[in-house]
């Protein structure tokens, strides 16, 4: 007789760095069903951002959506606002933005690689990778003044220039990574322990990845060539020579397992090094801000009306910000769609059929960033109400009717 | 500071109560080779029952408050609580949010506050040293 046990993982769990609850239903050693409960990290950022005194204050909120992809959210927001208010960004600012985005990606991917090693119980590798990562943290501090929250973005450009006298140190850091890259690949991809735990674990097919609309390295590890930097190039990316990284760069064929995730993320570090070099080579001269005077900029944004989208390829995938301006002090509407939101549904097909011990590495393989993801939760008199599919469908039908009848 | 009474390695448990991850990654950075707090025996453990110090990040969202309280109660005495980051101290940038019940000292008693958004690894290590001093005093009074 088989019994199905429920194993709750989270909201606070040693395998998780952030609060999320994953309920796994276990039969013997095998996972038969999975339920994900989100919302523990909901801080109401969009609401706060819409109620701040002016858009510049809201921009500082965007940096605090996530401390890991800290440059991505403000970057998407400024792009959305620039599209809505018709602000043209100087070319030099576009290049500086691209450099900061890649610095962010290098640190985020190395961070993930370390966490993945930790989830496998390979703590030596965690420590090695994080030591390796400190170089890019120093570089971020050198350019922006901060290790974690860069605060480089401003509507219509960037707040800090990268003067030519800073180039040698950036190039030196890139040389450091290029020299150490082979060692990193050797340690992660030629290691017996890692291969044992990741090859054939958490397999997801290309078709499923497409069906679930996955984004970022999670979908590229399944052989889907999808990358915002290539498909819809903004900033400096249109001028650069880049290709989406898929696992066949290292492996003969795409399997779509956790190992492929490691391949994609490691080789994206190499790609980022290449992008930063290209940006430094081609960096144009000129101003870094479209409007330097802050009161004038605020006045311009206050008078603007319109809507805009900002798309950025975050380390975890595509991040979308939507902004509507309506001739008022602050945003009329602000909506964030973070990449993990798309990638979480992949947990179910990846976890079903896996063993209990593989739960941490599979959960970590999509590089979940829950502080980005938790956008909506319904609170009803202090009691949490979980909306079922039927509830959502009913609400959706009600909204359609309301729109048809009353137009609002 | 002489370490006489508290003769064991200091173990910490980390709980994220809705933080943006900025301080969380800096806590790990403080433990890894550049700052290497582990050489003093300071390390993160997987269970609050093994921990001497509780590191709390984040402004405490409504959903995480009961979990935070329970974790604090699960820890053995004597214990110290360190809040890492501005948002746990005062709400920080999130202070107006409708979904916060924090800051942390609304929920559990706090011994050390480490400011910063995000707090730097050096600051986190300094905060842990302060908590160690507190434990030292408590142990000293009890005769170790």
What does this structure look like?
The complex is a heterodimer of chains A (408) and B (144). Chain A has 408 residues and is an alpha+beta fold. Chain A has 2 domains: 53-311, Cytochrome-c3 Hydrogenase, chain B; 381-408. Chain A has helices at 45-51, 55-63, 72-85, 91-119, 123-144, 167-189, 192-198, 206-211, 216-220, 228-231, 258-282, 294-303, 339-343, 347-351, 359-365, 370-373, 389-406, and strands at 4-9, 21-27, 30-37, 153-154, 157-158, 305-314, 317-326, 333-337, 378-380, 383-385. In chain A, helix 2 (55-63) packs antiparallel against helix 3, helix 4 runs antiparallel to helix 11 and helix 4 (91-119) packs antiparallel against helix 15. Chain A is globular and about 70 Å long. Chain A starts with a strand and ends with a helix. Residues 377-387 of chain A have low confidence and may be disordered. With 144 residues, chain B is of the alpha/beta class. In chain B, 32% of the residues lie in helices and 15% in strands. Chain B has helices at residues 22-31, 65-74, 86-90, 121-141, and strands at 11-16, 43-44, 53-57, 80-84, 112-114. In chain B, strand 3 (53-57), helix 2 (65-74) and strand 4 (80-84) form a beta-alpha-beta unit. The two termini of chain B are 16 Å apart. Classes of the chains: A alpha+beta (408), B alpha/beta (144).
Q: Find the structural class of chain A using helix and strand composition.
A: alpha+beta
Query: Which spans of chain B of ≥5 residues are poorly predicted at pLDDT below 50?
Result: none
Residue share in helices of chain A?
Answer: 40-55%
Strand order of the largest sheet of chain A: 1-2-3
Largest sheet of chain B: 5 strands, parallel
Please describe the biggest sheet of chain A, giving its number of strands, its sense, and whether it closes into a barrel.
Answer: 3 strands, antiparallel
């Amino acid at each position: 007789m088989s019994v199905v046990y429920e194993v709750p993982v989270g909201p606070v769990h040693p395998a998780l760095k952030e609060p999320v609850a994953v309920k796994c239903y276990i039969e013997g050693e095998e996972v038969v069903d999975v339920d994900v409960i989100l919302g523990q990290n909901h801080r109401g950022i969009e609401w706060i951002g819409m109620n701040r005194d002016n858009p510049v204050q809201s921009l500082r909120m965007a940096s605090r959506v996530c401390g890991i992809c800290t440059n991505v959210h403000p970057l998407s927001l400024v792009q959305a606002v620039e599209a809505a208010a018709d602000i043209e960004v100087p070319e030099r600012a576009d290049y500086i933005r691209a450099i900061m985005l890649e610095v962010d990606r290098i640190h985020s991917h190395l961070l993930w690689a370390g966490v993945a090693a930790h989830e496998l119980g390979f703590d030596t590798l965690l420590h090695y990778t994080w030591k390796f990562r400190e170089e890019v943290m120093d570089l971020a501090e050198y350019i922006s003044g901060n290790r974690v929250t860069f605060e480089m973005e401003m509507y219509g450009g960037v707040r800090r220039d990268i003067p030519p006298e800073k180039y040698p140190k950036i190039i030196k850091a890139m040389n450091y990574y290029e020299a150490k890259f082979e060692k990193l690949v050797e340690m992660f991809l030629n290691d017996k322990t890692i291969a044992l735990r990741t090859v054939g674990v958490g397999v997801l097919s290309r078709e499923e990845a497409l069906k679930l609309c996955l984004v970022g390295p999670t979908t590229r590890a399944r052989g889907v060539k999808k990358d915002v930097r290539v498909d819809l190039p903004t900033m400096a990316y249109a001028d650069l020579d880049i290709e989406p990284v898929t696992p066949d760069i290292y492996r003969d064929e795409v399997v779509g397992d956790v190992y492929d995730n490691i391949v994609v993320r490691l080789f994206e570090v190499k790609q980022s090094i290449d992008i930063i070099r290209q940006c430094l080579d081609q960096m144009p001269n000129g101003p870094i801000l479209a409007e330097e005077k802050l009161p004038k900029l605020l006045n311009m944004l206050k008078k603007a009306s319109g809507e805009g989208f900002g798309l950025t390829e975050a380390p975890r995938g595509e991040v979308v910000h939507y902004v509507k301006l309506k001739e008022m002090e602050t945003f009329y509407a602000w909506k964030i769609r973070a990449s993990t939101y798309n990638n979480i549904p992949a947990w179910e097909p990846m976890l079903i059929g896996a063993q209990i011990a593989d739960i941490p590495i599979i959960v970590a393989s999509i590089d979940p960033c829950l502080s980005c993801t938790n956008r909506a939760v319904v609170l009803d008199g202090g009691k949490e109400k979980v909306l079922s599919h039927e509830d959502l469908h009913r609400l959706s039908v009600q909204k359609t009717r309301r729109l048809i009848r009353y137009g609002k | 500071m002489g370490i006489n009474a508290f003769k064991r390695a200091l173990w910490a448990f980390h709980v994220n109560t809705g933080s943006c991850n900025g301080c969380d990654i800096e806590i790990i950075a403080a433990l890894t080779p550049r700052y290497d707090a582990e050489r003093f025996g300071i390390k993160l453990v997987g269970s609050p029952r093994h921990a001497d110090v509780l590191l709390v990040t984040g402004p405490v969202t409504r959903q995480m408050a009961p979990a935070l309280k329970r974790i604090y109660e699960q820890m053995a005495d004597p214990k110290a609580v360190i809040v890492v980051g501005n948002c746990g101290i005062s709400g920080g940038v999130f202070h107006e949010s409708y979904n916060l019940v924090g800051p942390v000292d609304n929920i559990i008693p706090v011994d050390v506050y480490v400011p910063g958004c995000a707090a730097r690894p050096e600051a986190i290590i300094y905060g842990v040293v302060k908590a160690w001093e507190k434990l030292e005093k408590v142990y000293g009074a009890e005769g170790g």
